[in-house]
Amino acid sequence: MSVGLTRALRWTRANLFNTPLNGTLTVVIAFLLLRFLSPMIDWAVLRASLSARDDRACAAVGGACWAFIRDWFRFLIFGRYPYAQQWRPAIVLVIFVALLLASFSRRLPARRLAPAWLGGLGAVALLMRGGVLGMPYVETGLWNGLPLTLILAAGGLGASFPLALLLALGRRSSLPALRVICTCYIEAARGIPFIAWLFLMLVLLPLFLPPGLVIAKLWRAEIAFALFIAAYLAEVVRGGLQAIPRGQYEAADALGLGYAQKTLRVILPQALALTIPAQVNTFIGAFKDTALISIIGLFDVLQDTNTALNDPAWRMAYVEGYLFTGVIYFAFCYSMSLYSRGLERHLGQGRR
Fold first, then answer.
1. pLDDT in tens, 116-129
2. Which of 85, 162, 246, 342 is deepest in the core (most CB within 10 A)?
3. Domain ranges of the chain
């Protein structure tokens, strides 16, 4: 018997059959997986169709209609972005994936991550907008699909994080006026649905702008996204600040550190490390909330799927369409979850 097989059997005995209850649950779960996984594999793989021309042909085969994804793939990913220029949002996706991998692997030093993300987002804006280096200008209304989802998520979360830190510190400030202002903003922002924030920015913001100043709908949605998420993230950070033992504050004061040094070097690093799971949970929820921008007429990857399903030839392929979209959301959300767990292990929070 090989060493690998021996280790696998030992692990199975120690983790899955170590007690009668665990052994029973393992057998039941295995039975359920075999019972339901086999028909799913038969539908999704064995009888799936990649060559059908419409959903009727797929129905005749009886399997998944992946031909819908084949025909509409570029629209699902890039939306209405000009077809001849779709190499630009394709590079944007590569930039985002590279930045995420660099962040998750922690190969880049922490002090270089922020400049890397700023430079990457600048390159993303340049590629999507065009108007330079021989690239035709593309208005923001045509920024669709997965690149738009990632732009909203990265830009909104990046802008909301420093604002959340300021709000959390302001709510715990000893200055009554500052504390009241931050508290009122946080409670008001959390009490208003994100959809209402979108409509507020869409309808009311232009009324307060100087004549002649116009902010594109995309950037108004980005502002609403950042302001909304900052309120929730501020409460997460405040919870971490409250969890810091009083002795840490007193030790920093005994060393003669000023407020800024004490906060940036002693208190905030510990508070942020303690709240990593809650922060990532907020980030994951925010990433999924980007789908709500379709309400104000912006075409993210989910809205592109809805639009593609209006094709009379593929109206019955909604399961495959939404499954494809769900896999995209799951991939990014699960990646953030894995990063959170890895960061927790790296910082040793679970062992302290």
1. 889 999 999 999 99
2. 85
3. 1-46, 64-351
